[in-house]
Write a structure and sequence with these properties.
Strand content: 25-35%
Number of strands: 17
Number of helices: 9
Radius of gyration: 22 Å
Length: about 400
């Protein structure tokens, strides 16, 4: 793995106040061993087919879902596929994988490292949350016959640590607010670090546009408050909302679409039909409207990704931390196949928009790309090249 960082990488102006994932570690995960991915405001992961680009993004998405409180079985539908290639089972026929990340924020640099057993039974076997050289939480599987791990968290009171069981099917860090009293300075540090980690992970938005569904009207049953789904299936509904909410942002979206779609683009329109479904159109001018269904796959993907970069966290279907204001949260967009189906013009336009948006600070983007021939024109992008 080769990492190419630009000479200067602009972190958000208020970066220290925002929780953000700055490193992904795949110690032993699928085809990756000892891999470390530095994550900047704009990070492009490149490499040939089979080099593990999608796997890296899937690992970060898995951590995000665990941070949101999902169970292991929900996150890892095929856990054996996450076990490193050629990994040998131990005497008890156990095999597993290890992933982790680093989050920067008000507490400083906080690391999370997680060990998961995939066979013979899916469960957490070890977790460590650290800040600097201080271990804030550590868990270990002591009794394989019980559905729990033994946890110890920093107290720094009359007792250095507090011990207790935690479930072996969830991320312990996400459960700490329910177990730590916060009476001592040490306990308050544990809670602050856990909150920083969870905020950053819960603010990850996997964006996987599905052009086939984006072409269809949004049925009444899918309409849900104008928040964009991961597959962008309800794009027409979101266009209806954003056009009404902010004329300035909508104008920027129209301008961006004009730069990446064929033919004249005077406006983007959405309307509710008599049956309650929502339809979207491109206003071509002179009273001519083209349904989005007529756009090619590349144009629809470009439109969806542009919308994601311009709308921000309040419009995307992420799991927000309600008690923390959005200005203190960073949205991290994961885009597997970021340049898939895009022509050179669309790649350049999307790259320029991504660089500008990420520089502002409220959005970070991690995209897997097939090549980086266009990335040199994207100022401020960090490129991670994976080699077979």
């Amino acid at each position: 793995m080769t990492v190419h960082l630009p000479e200067t990488v602009a972190e958000p102006p208020s970066g220290p106040d925002r929780s953000r994932v700055t490193e992904l570690r795949l110690s032993a995960f699928a085809s990756h061993r000892g891999a470390v991915f530095p994550l900047r405001p704009l990070t492009l992961v490149a490499g040939p087919s089979g080099s593990g680009k999608s796997t890296a993004l899937a690992a970060l998405e898995a951590l995000a879902r665990l941070g949101a409180g999902e169970e292991l079985a929900e996150v890892f539908a095929d856990p054996v596929a996450c076990v490193p290639d050629l990994a040998q089972a131990d005497g008890q026929q156990r095999r597993g994988f290890r992933i982790g990340c680093t989050v920067e924020g008000p507490v400083g640099s906080v690391r999370l490292d997680l060990a998961v057993q995939a066979e013979p039974e899916l469960r957490v076997v070890g977790e460590r949350l650290t800040r600097g050289g201080l271990t804030l939480l550590e868990t270990a599987l002591r009794d394989p016959g019980r559905p729990a791990v033994q946890a110890a968290w920093h107290t720094a009171g009359t007792t250095p640590v507090t011990r207790g069981p935690l479930p072996d099917d969830r991320l312990g860090t996400a459960l700490l607010p329910l177990r730590v009293a916060g009476k001592t300075a040490g306990q308050r540090l544990v809670l602050a670090a856990a909150e920083q980690m969870v905020i950053a992970l819960r603010s990850v938005f996997p964006c996987v546009p599905r052009p086939g569904l984006m072409r269809l009207p949004v049925p009444p049953g899918l309409i849900g408050g104008g928040r964009l789904l991961s597959g962008c299936d309800n794009l027409a509904e979101v266009l209806l909302r954003t056009r009404e909410e902010c004329g300035t942002r909508h104008a920027r979206l129209v301008s961006a679409v004009r730069a990446g779609c064929a033919g004249p683009v005077a406006d983007l329109l959405a309307e509710v039909a008599d049956d309650g479904s929502v339809h979207a159109f491109i206003d071509r001018g002179a009273g001519i409207r083209s349904p989005l269904g007529r756009l090619g796959d590349g144009e629809l993907r470009y439109l969806a990704l542009t919308l994601v970069l311009l709308t921000g966290p309040g419009v995307l279907e992420v799991d927000p931390v309600a008690e923390v204001p959005w200005p203190y949260q960073n949205l991290t967009v994961l885009a597997d196949g970021l340049d898939h189906c895009l022509d050179p013009r669309q790649k350049r336009a999307l790259g320029e928009l991504a660089a500008h948006t990420c520089e502002r600070g409220h959005i970070r983007l991690v995209g897997a790309v097939s090549d980086t021939s266009w990335a040199g024109e994207t100022g401020g992008a960090a490129v991670v090249n994976l080699e077979l």
